[in-house]
Design a protein that fits this description.
About 30% of the residues lie in helices and about 20% in strands. The protein has a 9-stranded mixed β-sheet with strand order 11-10-9-8-14-6-15-18-17. The chain is elongated. With about 375 residues, it is α/β, with parallel strands linked by helices. The chain is built from 13 helices and 18 strands.
Amino acid sequence: MAAISLSTGIAQDEFFMRRALEFAAKTTALASPNPQVGCVIVRHGELLGEGAHLYDNYDHAEIVALKQIAAKNLSSAGATAYVTLEPCSHHGRTGPCADALIAAGIARCVVATTDPNPLVSGRGIQKLRDANIDVAIGVLQQQARDINEAFAHFIRTHTPFVTLKAALSADNKLAPPSASRLPDQPHWITGPAARAEVQRLRHASDAILTGIGTVLADNPLLTDRSGHPRRRPLLRVVLDTHLRIPRNSQLVRSANKDLLVLTSSDAPAYHREALTAEGVEVAVIPEHAGRLSLPAALALLTKRKILSVLLEAGSDLNGAFLDQNLVDKAILFHSTETLGEQALPFANGIEAVSIFEQSLLRSSTTTYGPDTCITGYIHNPWPAE
């Protein structure tokens, strides 16, 4: 890349940080359970090296960029590093990136956002400053934080970031009445553009979770059909207290070390054995008030380093997650179709969807063809400042 000449230092910082963010965004489903990080190293407006972190390749983004520079027989001395997340200051699977930048002779480091981990936040920045490196913080901060909202939530709360996704009719219903539906057939409320966006959401998630009611009603596949690569399969999780999931369902027939059915200790042993023989993993979790414990389900996923869960469920499970304050983000697609008073509600316990949407933090509206999507947060995934 030829040297970039921009009118101000702020414009140059934003230009190269956007490039670093583009690199970070390309690692969706390839970096988890680590954060998505991009790095661009520049001197006098000329790009020297760039890269992003891929979990399976170990090297953090800063190291990828520095190795690229070394491979060109170039020097990083006096350069500026643009990093979407604060360079690490501790030893993990690799050494501290802050130390590597110091050793490379970086003169300035532009950081989009600090590390959300309260145990290390600010330490990488302090290391750089102690080495007389000029550090600027907060360039395109919100964009950088949005990319790593699941990681930020997980590292602070030690529980997965739960996004409730639902497709609703114009009258805010989730599905037609059971009596009017064809067996084992989903009823598409939204159009192709909205459904393509759902596949993107699945691709960006570590797991997708639903209840046995949805499985019996829709016979869904619940796979990531985005066509993009991922380092580990989308984990499909079903809450099924009595192990009623049919062995001929699409979920069971397609199981390939990616289907986890959570059940109670009272579930018939022979059902569990039959599902296990089909390649389905079955795990017992505690019950609470006659239902499977949702916190226990999330705790099990935490142990597996599942950072993000996409909840695609029915009225009962949507309502239970919301009632127990376990949803962190909501994404609601609204179609133009009307289903009528007898149709299934969005979530048990939510009387007015419009009021629920108005209560969301940082809510935004997007259109996908004829459908409208409302997105907002219930919990801020990043620490308050």
